[in-house]
């Protein structure tokens, strides 16, 4: 935020990189910080990771919060690889329980929510917009993240001969979503 001055309403941010370059982790960090520190609700569309994976990453990020420093001696946070592989120590297990409880409690009282949507099968931008608008009516959204735009289906029956052209249409649709969500608000 210091460098980019944060996102502004109606903006579309595109994050590109090769496989394994932590794009999803950065996006989840952005979602987490938006909810934790700004109190905004975030809708996170995960098109390539299971719900449980996304939630685990959020718990690991939350474990780095200053409020949990007292918990750990050697490890000051929960390492995702150790959590994923079931290698947490008893102390880390206790920390994880506290992190999960605080995260869930905070969503109800102190923080914004990170709403994870994991569609079954293909999804288009209009379907993303509809799901986000439904959530927005329940609890106002401050940010929508789609992780992974390359897996969003081209809409409107546009016939294209290559992946790049199809992705271009998806990005155009996402740009329109950013500009027009909640009547342009």
Brief synopsis:
Helices cover 48% and strands 9% of the residues.
Features:
185 residues; mainly alpha; three-stranded parallel beta sheet; 6 helices; 3 strands; 48% helix
How is this fold's topology laid out?
Elements: H1 23-38, E1 41-46, H2 51-62, H3 80-84, H4 90-109, E2 114-117, H5 125-138, E3 141-147, H6 163-184
Parallel strand pairs: 1-2, 1-3
Low-pLDDT segments, ≥5 res: none
Q: Helix tally?
A: 6
Terminal CA distance = 21 Å
> What does the overall shape look like?
globular
Neighbour order of strands in the largest sheet: 2-1-3
Largest sheet: 3 strands, parallel
- Mean pLDDT comes to 85
Radius of gyration over alpha carbons? 18 Å
Following the backbone from N to C, one meets helices and strands in this order, namely HEHHHEHEH
Helix content: 40-55%
> How many strand segments?
3
What class do helices, strands and sheet pairing give?
Answer: mainly alpha
**How large is the share of residues in beta strands?**
5-15%
């Amino acid at each position: 935020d210091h460098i980019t001055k944060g996102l502004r309403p109606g903006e579309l941010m595109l994050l590109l990189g090769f496989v394994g370059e932590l794009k999803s982790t950065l996006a989840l960090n952005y979602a987490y910080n938006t909810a934790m520190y700004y109190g905004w609700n975030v809708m996170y569309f995960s098109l390539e990771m299971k719900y449980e994976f996304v939630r685990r990453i959020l718990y690991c990020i939350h474990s780095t919060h200053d409020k949990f420093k007292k918990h750990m001696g050697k490890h000051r946070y929960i390492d995702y690889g150790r959590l994923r592989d079931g290698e947490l120590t008893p102390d880390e297990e206790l920390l994880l329980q506290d992190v999960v409880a605080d995260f869930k409690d905070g969503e109800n009282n102190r923080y914004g929510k990170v709403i994870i949507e994991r569609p079954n099968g293909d999804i288009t931008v209009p379907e993303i917009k509809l799901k986000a608008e439904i959530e927005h009516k329940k609890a106002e959204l401050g940010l929508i993240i789609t992780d992974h735009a390359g897996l969003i289906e081209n809409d409107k029956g546009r016939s294209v001969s290559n992946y790049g052209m199809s992705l271009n249409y998806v990005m155009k649709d996402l740009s329109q979503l950013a500009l027009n969500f909640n009547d342009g608000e």
